[in-house]
Amino acid sequence: MTDAAYLLVHEDREYLLEPGEEFGTDLGVIEVPEDVAAGDEVDTHLGTVFEVRALRGPDLFNHLERTGAPMMPRDVGLVMGHTGASGGDRVLDAGTGTGILAAYLGRAGADVTTYEVDAEFAAVARENMTTAGVADRVEVRTGDLTDELDALADEEPFDALTLDTGDAPAVVERADDLLAPGGRLAVYSPFVEGTREAALAAREAGFDEVETLETIQREMDFSDRGSRPSTAGVGHTGYLVFGRAP
């Protein structure tokens, strides 16, 4: 069985391509065989050799089609680590966007139901799930999660709830109805005001282990003069609220 897509790499060039796809570059036309597999080599019509590699999680962030600013890998890592989502878990997600988080969760083996209010964004996310090889584990629904809370509360409870939406506090108020005992909550927000509201809502809903983290990351610079954190770029990406259902 072939994967949905592969990374084709030559020196500093890399392209995410599907089996059977033809792609033109200044190094020549790449014709990806239908039976391509990781470890193969593919020559362009000009003789440039590309190495075929299996798709990895970080490649999703770099190559999936974007419909806005996707969740950064550092934030995805915190969500994955604090929720512990893994094979067999049921995850309810809202604010799909590009679908980076949903794809990571699916590749970890979780079954994900994710909501996106923008129909065009949802359509792109579905294509991205196919590319990521998780279309069988990630269901992208078009709609507002807040409109579905009553219906979802009657379903089998979820093991984790992950939110990246402006109305997240309203969902958190009902999170105990959605999660299994001990289920995990993760809320991402770029603004501290929404973060505060989500944290307060989690405490009022009776959640345990409620904590709020700011994500800050700095690269290191190494030179002959010495080593120090880089002064370039902004290390902050956003805020995350975590909690455990009673």
Overall CATH class of the largest domain = Alpha Beta
**For the CA atoms, what is the radius of gyration?**
20 Å
CATH H level, superfamily name of the largest domain: Vaccinia Virus protein VP39
| Chain-averaged pLDDT | 94
State the helical fraction: 25-40%
What overall form do the CA principal axes indicate?
Answer: globular
Stretches where pLDDT is under 50 for at least 5 consecutive residues are: none
Distance linking N and C termini:
42 Å
Number of strands: 15
Largest sheet: 7 strands, mixed
CATH topology of the largest domain: Rossmann fold
GO molecular function: tRNA (adenine(58)-N1)-methyltransferase activity
Keywords: Methyltransferase, S-adenosyl-L-methionine, Transferase, tRNA processing
Pfam families: GCD14
Protein name: SAM-dependent methyltransferase
What does this structure look like?
The chain contains 8 helices and 15 strands. The relative contact order is 0.12. The radius of gyration is 20 Å and the shape is globular. With 246 residues, it is an alpha/beta fold. The chain folds into 2 domains: 50 residues, Roll (Vcp-like ATPase, Chain A, domain 2), CATH 3.10.330; 187 residues, Vaccinia Virus protein VP39 (Rossmann fold, 3-Layer(aba) Sandwich), CATH 3.40.50.150. This is SAM-dependent methyltransferase. Keywords: Methyltransferase, S-adenosyl-L-methionine, Transferase, tRNA processing. GO terms for molecular function: tRNA (adenine(58)-N1)-methyltransferase activity.
